[in-house]
Amino acid sequence: MLIALALCLVFALAAVSDSEAAPLYGRWGRTFAAQDGTPHHAEVTVRLTSPKEKNHTVSGYWDGGTSWGVRFMPDEEGEWSYRSESDSPGLDGVTGTFSCRRVPTDDRFLQHGPLRVSRDGRSFEHADGTPFFWLGDTVWTGPQLAAKGDWDRFLDDRVQKKFTGIQFVLTAPWRTAPTDENGHPSYTGQEEMRIVPEYFRRMDERVNAINAHGLLAIPVMLWSIGPNDPGRFLPEDQAIRLARYLLARYGAHHVAWILPGDDKYVDENAEKWKRIGRAVFDGREHAPVTLHPQGMQWPFDGFKNESWIGYYGYQSGHGDDARTVSWLHSGPPAQAWKEGPARPVINLEPPYEDHFGYQSKQPHSAYNIRRAAYWSLLNAPTAGLTYGAHGVWSWHSKPGEPPTDHPYTGVAKPWHEAMDLPGSRDMKVMAEFFTSLSWWKLRPRQDLLSRQPGEDDPFRHIAASQSEDAKVSVFYLPTGGELSLKASLLPKRVNAAWFDPRTGVRSPASPESDGSYTAPDDRDWVLLIQE
Fold first, then answer.
1. Is 129 domain-assigned?
2. What are the helix (H) ranges across 305-455?
3. Are 318 and 408 in the same domain?
4. φ, ψ for residue 108 (rounded to 5)?
């Protein structure tokens, strides 16, 4: 009942008027009526003053015809005031007030506030400091193609499996979805881009549903690998216009942004994205932002001084050879975090379950997915990762075929079958394990090992992490076997347990006479040592 009350207040934006209360950390919104003939690219800015007299500025967005809208997330209880500014008559000088109050709810965002980077820069937390464990699911095409009932069914499943975010593409056309299910692209034109409001009204419903389920929305603004993707197709000034529109329309949602997707951020192309990022985000309030690189690329050495970059997102990709796994557990993600400035490190695209491995041409198994997940969580300060399932990412509906424009990835199951692949259930087990600990305090500690099997075989690499106070140590053994530790770096009195990453069952672990531990069998295991 409490959730229902909160959702009625938060997601029925059109019903919120100046006389009604907006929920704390929810969304307040209103529409403006411009005069006939106002150009669709007219700009409107709304300046808001909080009950404590703090000033905020947000941009409005065109919603078709003579209608403009504005959305804002109030972060103080009490009476707010606002005033619009625009060069266009009808959009300028509109004033009003609205009240904000906390609503009774168990929704994580309405309780604790929006996402931000933690104070130490290593993970994510809510506005009140409550840690946020990032477990995203990749549904690149879902919001464009999913019917409303199907989308809700899918989100229900992900909540039950402890996912905390949904990663998707916000605009069309892109490689796998030239339009939404109703045939609408998100924009038309090239030299002068024009928004298609019908597309975004439908997208509003899908993004609202993500937040209504207590999940973080993780949208890619401008996909940029193919010639028809907006990051490549649109001139730079129009790409900026589109991204600013997305920020205006969805910046009051609970989001973490990915500005471009699947591009190479080197040389002049890197400079282009720096210019776009600064133009879109600098001087504006916004949620954390990153880039989505192509596989096994680390572009962030050149972006360290970009203030709009809030976290480092990378793609270890869908390879399954020794070079790929070595890059994941011992490559740039495992090294770059040690250098400043401190930012969370997230594998945004590890191998997708049931997707063909690039080298073996065989589907990635649940084991491959677990292995990549634990390596991703422990190769840098633990912050989270994003899972993916073949058939879900493309919202596949054609049995017996690979996803559109991806013939090399293998035949995909329909989305409603793929969403229950065993690896997705393993993600629930994994999330429950990490959230039972002070996971945000974990730091890689390869020096705890007296012997690293991965030096001889990268597939046997043991990941090691320890909390800053040394009270919790976590080790992932991908092939079981023996774990040799330096006892001097562990507390003298410890409790040790083997954690089964398939079932979540814990069993006592006792050291051998030499202080080493031997896994129950040759499958993958996690050893947890606590003071």
1. no
2. 322-330, 332-336, 366-378, 415-418, 422-434
3. yes
4. -60, -35
Report the CATH number at residue 27.
Answer: 2.60.40.10
Domain that holds residue 517: 445-530
The string over 149-181, giving b where at least 16 C-beta atoms fall within 10 Å of a residue's C-beta and e elsewhere, is eebeebbeebeebbbbbbbbbbbbbbbbbeebe
CA 19 vs CA 4, 28, 79: distances in Å: 21, 12, 11
Give domain status of residue 7, yes or no.
yes
Reported pTM: 0.96
Q: What is the Cα–Cα distance from 44 to 59, expressed in whole angstroms?
A: 6
Domain co-membership, 408 together with 449? no
Q: What's the pLDDT at 493?
A: 85
Task: Reply yes or no on whether the pLDDT at 7 is more than 50.
Answer: no
Our count of domains for the chain comes to 3
Can you read off the two tokens belonging to residue 87?
Answer: 């060069």
Q: What is the pLDDT of residues 342-396, one digit of tens each?
A: 999 999 999 999 999 999 999 999 999 999 999 999 999 999 999 999 999 999 9
CATH number at residue 149: 3.20.20.80
CA distances from 283 to 278, 343, 377 (A): 9, 20, 32
CB 342 within 8 A of CB 291: no
DSSP 289-348: EEEEEPTT---GGGTTT-TT--SEEE---S--SHHHHHHHHHSHHHHHTTSSSP--EEES
φ, ψ for residue 459 (rounded to 5)?
Answer: -75, -15
Per-residue model confidence as pLDDT tens digits over 458-480: 999 999 999 999 999 999 999 99
Residues composing the chain: 531
Q: Show the 3-state SS of 167-222.
A: EEECCCCECCECCCCCCCCCEECCCCCEECHHHHHHHHHHHHHHHHCCCEEEEEEE
Structure-token pair, residue 90: 């009808």
At 332, which amino acid appears? P
Instruction: Tell whether 300 and 367 lie within a shared domain.
Output: yes
